[in-house]
Amino acid sequence: MSKVKLASVQFSPASFEREANMEKAVFWTKKALEEGARIVVLPELFDSGYCVEDKDLKLGLDLNDIKSSTLAPLIELTKIYNAYIIANSIEKSKNKLYDTAYILSKKGVLGKYRKIYLYDNEKKRFNRGKKYPIFELKFEKFKVKIGLGICYEIGFSDGARFLALQGAQILIYPAAFGVARAYVWDLASRARALESGCFVVAANRCGKEFSKVKDSYIEFAGKTKIISPKGEIIQELGEYEGISCVELELDDVKAQRENLTYLKDLNLKLCQKMYKNLKA
User: Fold this and answer.
1) Strand 208-211 to strand 199-203: parallel, antiparallel, or no bridges (unpaired)?
2) Which residues fall within 8 angstroms of residue 128, CB to CB, at 6 or more apart?
3) Cβ distance 40 to 84 under 8 Å?
4) SS (H, E, C) 224-239
5) Tens digits of per-residue pLDDT, 62-83?
6) What dihedral do alpha carbons 264, 266, 270, 274 form, nearest 10°?
7) Mean pLDDT across the stretch 167-193?
8) 44 noted as active-site residue
9) CA 130/CA 114 separation, integer angstroms
């Protein structure tokens, strides 16, 4: 029996307020770690806020700088509690910007995933990622394979399926998903779990920010949820700040995939042929 306790932090980052956002992130992350979580997930652009288009370059994070005000306190927590933290920030690399999720361990940055499917104005803000990596988190008696997606990407089945076919047991989606499309969040998160036979962590933020681009406030949906490989919601938060902390039985992934053989029966050759024949 392989069990791991995972927590997702839901809070309301403020635009441009990195110091205040980090104080909140550290507070809630520490609370989750004290409850025994070995994996803690933070929402999309948790340190900068989401509606910061005019300061993206300034707020961009160099993931090689482990002494930065974003990375250093989180890495310190991974050392103290022997845990992993999955976060998401604006990444700056060679003056290119990406919407990037990354995994922190006591050794520093374990790996990163750059958002491939950019939503709306994100296409002007960020460069696209090009890879779907799998990350292996090592615990005392077992390993966990993690796949990452970000926000809007929860609506794309191809990414989730590709990660599952590579062995992912848990799919994690840091997000800044708006109230206006909360129905998508609710349905797509469960669908990704069921079709892939994975646990899904839909890690959203709450609160609101003023968007200069839209000249209005964007209200974020909250409703962070942890979902079983059967597509059942194990735990869900409301619209306020808090943490969702759940012990996951990893053997449930294997059991569900044996019970519902979507991945085994997938005709990869036909899929490849169909995709190849599509015109962009």
Assistant:
1) unpaired
2) 114, 115, 116, 118
3) yes
4) CEEECCCCCEEEECCC
5) 999 999 999 999 999 999 999 9
6) -150
7) 97
8) yes
9) 7
Read off φ and ψ for residue 56, nearest 5 degrees: -55, -45
Run of H or E including 216: strand 216-219
Instruction: Find out whether 189 and 225 touch, Cβ atoms under 8 Å.
Output: yes
| Mean pLDDT in residue range 242-260 | 97
Q: Kindly report whether the global pTM for this prediction surpasses the value 0.85.
A: yes
Structural domain boundaries enclosing 183 = 3-277
Q: Is 151 a catalytic residue?
A: yes
Of 92, 145, 151, 198, the active-site residue reads 151
Single-letter residue type at 201: V
Query: Is 66:109 a contact under the CB 8 Å cutoff?
Result: yes
Catalytic residue (choose from 115, 145, 223, 225): 115
Measured over the CA atoms of residue 105, residue 109, residue 115 and residue 120, the dihedral's sign is positive
Angle (CA) 229 33 205, round 5°: 65
184 neighbors 155 (Cβ within 8 angstroms): yes
Which CATH number characterizes residue 82's domain?
3.60.110.10
HEC assignment per residue over 157-204: HHHHHHHHHCCCCEEEEECCCEHHHHHHHHHHHHHHHHHHCCEEEEEC
Structural domains in the chain (count) = 1
The amino acid that residue 91 corresponds to is E
